[in-house]
Design brief:
The protein is an all-alpha fold. The chain is about 65% helix and about 0% strand. The protein is built from five helices and no strands. Helix 4 runs antiparallel to helix 5. The protein starts with 17 loop residues before the first helix and ends with a helix. The relative contact order is 0.10.
């Protein structure tokens, strides 16, 4: 079976061009360094009224990769969770449940890193 690309048509009410959307994405990243692609998409939708960047034929991650600003969102989110759990565990040393959760989360973080290296 072959995958067919779903072609999205640009809505009539959308006033931005492809280059303007790319500039907006880079402006958002400049203002908020380290922001993930999911959050950029939410900002584009809520603030600028751009439903999806696929309408223009590209993804947010592609724009960020061109400028070497891309961070894998899975790796970033799991890394932040590890930091939160370590901080909690340093205050509450007897919390066994958090200790076990920290071990699992570190393992998931390592797996994601290894996967990204191979792919």
């Amino acid at each position: 079976m072959t995958k067919t690309k779903k072609i999205l048509n640009k809505p009539v009410w959308l006033k931005y061009s492809e280059s303007e959307v790319k500039e907006i994405i880079l402006k958002i990243v400049e203002k908020n360094p380290g922001i993930t692609t999911e959050k950029i998409g939410l900002i584009l939708r809520d603030t600028y009224g751009i439903p999806k960047t696929k309408i223009f034929g590209f993804k947010i991650g592609d724009v960020l990769k061109e400028k070497n600003l891309y961070q894998d969102p899975d790796l970033k989110n799991v890394g932040e969770k590890v930091i939160k759990l370590e901080k909690h565990l340093s205050k509450h040393k007897g919390d066994k449940k958090t200790g076990k959760s920290l071990i699992k989360t570190k393992a998931r973080h390592k797996l994601i890193k290894e996967y990204l290296k191979t792919s």
